[in-house]
Structures are given as C-alpha cells and as structure tokens.
Amino acid sequence: MIIGVPKEMLPGERRVALVPDLVPNLTKAGLKVLLAPDAGTAAGFLDSTYEEKGACIGPGIFAEADLVLKVQPPTLEEISQMKEGTILIGLLQPHTNAVGIKALAARRIAAFALELMPRISRAQSMDVLSAISTIAGYKAVLLAANRLPKMFPLLMTAAGTVSPARVAVLGAGVAGLQAIATAKRLGAVVEAYDPRPAAKEQIRSLGARCMEIGLEAQEAEAETGYARVQSGEFYQRQRELMADWLASVDAVVTTALVQGRRAPILITEEMIQRMRPGSVVVDLAAEQGGNCTLTEPTGEVVRHGVVILGPVNLASTVPFHASQMYARIVTHYLEHLLHEGTVRIDLSDELTRDPLVTYQGEIRLREERLVS
Ligand code: NAI
C-alpha cells in the first residue's frame, strides 16, 4: 500500500500530516510512504529528513497513493486526481463542506473526517479536536499578551511595582483550561467561568478563580461531556451578570461552544463599551460565529478602544508542534485501521464507522448536517 502525503495548498496552512519520526511506524507495517516535495518544509521538516527515515519524495501524490493523509480538506482539483477507491484521512470539515463531501462520494473515496472521532477513552490518542484546542488556548493568551498595553506578571522593580494583568477566560473546556494555564504561567491573575459543574474543580486546580455569577444552567452537561444549549433568557442573564466582571479585567479569552450550534453570544457591544480602553478580547469561537457580536473571523476590530481578535486556525501558527501532534493522531488512527499491512473497514467498530463520511459512493452523514 502506498501512503501519500501531499503539500497543503490552502493559503496560510503550514502544517503537514506526517512528520519524519513517524515514517518508520508506517514502513515497518509494510507500507510505502511517498511525500510531495517540500510537504513539510513550512513546518520545519525537510525532505532530506523524511528520506533518512525511509520515505520517498516525488510528484503525483494523489494519482499514486492508495491512502492519502491530509490536514485540510482536499480541493476539487485534488479529489479529481485521486484514484477511485482511495482512502483519505484528514480534517474534512464535514458539516460545512458539502461540495467537497459530494465530490469525494462521487469519486468513491473512503473518506475519514477525524473531527468526527467519538470522544471516548479508547479514542483519546486520536482526539484531534483536543489537540487543536490545546494549541488554540495557548496561542490565544500569547496574542492577548502581545496586544495588551500592559505586562502580565507582577513585577517589583526599582522603578516601582507593576501590578499583574487580570485575565478572564469564558468557557473552561480543553482550550479554556489551556488558556488559564498559559495566562497563569505568564503571571496574570486569572478568573474563569463555565456553566458545566465539572469545570469548576478543573479551573481551581489550575490556580485560577472560578467565577460564580449566580446563574444555574439547566442540566449544563450532556452525557458526551459537552455543554448543553441553554435558553435565550439564560444567555441574556449571563451577559447581564458578567458585564461588571468583564469591565474590570484587562483581557478576555472566550472559548464557549455548544456542539452543533452557533457559538453562544456572551459579549455584546454594550459590554465592550464598558471595558477598559486598551483591553483585549480574543474570541476563539470566531469560526463558529463568535462569542462576541463584534468579532470578525481572521480579523482585528478596535471598538470603543477595545481590541477584538477573531483568530482562526491558530494551530497553523505553530506548525512544528501542531504537525507533530496531528501526525501522531493520524498514525494512531492508521494503526487502528490496519490489519496485516492493509486497511480493513469494519463498520461494526465505532472508531471506524463514525468518522467515515463517504464510502463506496455513499455519503454517510445525515443530509441536514451537510451545509455548503
Ligand atoms: P467545546 O469546545 O465544545 O466547548 C468549550 C467550552 O465552552 C466547554 O467547556 C463548554 O462548557 C463551554 N461553554 C458552553 N456554553 C458556555 C457559556 N454560555 N458560557 C461559558 N462557557 C460555555 O468543549 P471541549 O473543550 O471540546 O470539551 C468540553 C468537555 O468535553 C471536556 O471538558 C470534557 O468533559 C469533554 N471531553 C471529553 C473527551 C474524552 O475523550 N472523553 C475529550 C475532550 C473533551
């Protein structure tokens, strides 16, 4: 079997789906690994290093490979170059990429979207969303620190005492907890809020203050561990109760998401107006509609003296480690699928079944979840 790793062509994408250190895991399993020239260069992995580890470098990846490893969804052009029946593993954005998913089905590609991996203990080493959120939470705090006209730590100097920055984190899932840990490491005073009761202990265990805003969410957590959607009145009340708090902090990192929904609105323009001039909001929910009404995805907005950042694809800004983490996840998944040197698609196994979005010419996602 030939495993093909193309160079990612999406502008700004610097990650690669396989790193040199993991090539031997695949070659030892009897697979041939073929990479496009410069596939890993933007992430700091040279062609020569891949070759030393046993990979081949060459053109025509899509036409050659039996199995393609990608980061971003393939373009229509790339799909048209794939052999019928190719296996594809990547971040395929299945719910917002209807055209691509239909093209994959038409080409009879067996396409695995890693975002759909069930979040169960058995699949923890294949949890791509947690890896991406970890990076995003870390990087969001660095963006805030970089943009803030203040320093994060308490400093006692001959020129006087500098008081520490106050950072609020909204949403304490994977990204939020990493944001808390990073802001703490930089010396900020950190406060956080999440409606899931389980998050409270996790916030405290990182040395941050858990904000009790006096609002009880209805059955805040689903069996899956994700937050449940709340009523419009809940979000309205949450905004009212958080307004004073946010007006008193220097930086806010928002990470609040509700699975399968637009991100909840936690910060309105009126709340921004009350914040200190120079303060910074980093909205990690920008791609899902934003937690702040003023957020522009990929952009920076300055309103009422407050900087609002809506970064997307932060993982690509640290492509070395992001590729390393991603490649480990992909390799674990491939090892899960492989049986005696070839991929076996066992639909009775949820780790195989759930991420499989197209197979044998069929789209396996529910129609209403397929949006262009
Ligand atoms: P996520 O990315 O869907 O959401 C981020 C955070 O936003 C969550 O903590 C959520 O409670 C919070 N949120 C929702 N509405 C909010 C509101 N109105 N105000 C403030 N915050 C709000 O979640 P993520 O980070 O992917 O994971 C959340 C939980 O899922 C984890 O803490 C864990 O319990 C579970 N999980 C389980 C895994 C497993 O393998 N078993 C792996 C990763 C997460």
* Structural class assignment: alpha/beta
CATH superfamily of the largest domain: NAD(P)-binding Rossmann-like Domain
Low-confidence stretches: none
Overall form: globular
What would you note in describing this structure?
The relative contact order is 0.15. This protein folds into 2 domains: 2-117 and 319-369, Rossmann fold; 132-316, Rossmann fold (3-Layer(aba) Sandwich). The model has no long low-confidence stretch (mean pLDDT 95). The protein is an alpha/beta fold and 372 residues long. It contains 12 helices and 19 strands. The protein has helices at residues 23-27, 47-52, 61-64, 76-81, 98-106, 128-147, 174-185, 197-205, 232-247, 269-274, 319-337, 350-353, and strands at residues 2-5, 32-35, 56-57, 67-69, 87-90, 110-113, 155-157, 160-162, 166-170, 189-193, 209-210, 251-254, 280-283, 300-303, 306-309, 338-339, 342-343, 356-359, 362-363. 1,4-dihydronicotinamide adenine dinucleotide is lined by residues 119-120, 124, 127, 129-130, 133, 170-176, 193-196, 199, 225-227, 238, 255-259, 264, 266.
Summarize the structure.
This protein is of the alpha/beta class. The chain is built from twelve helices and 19 strands.
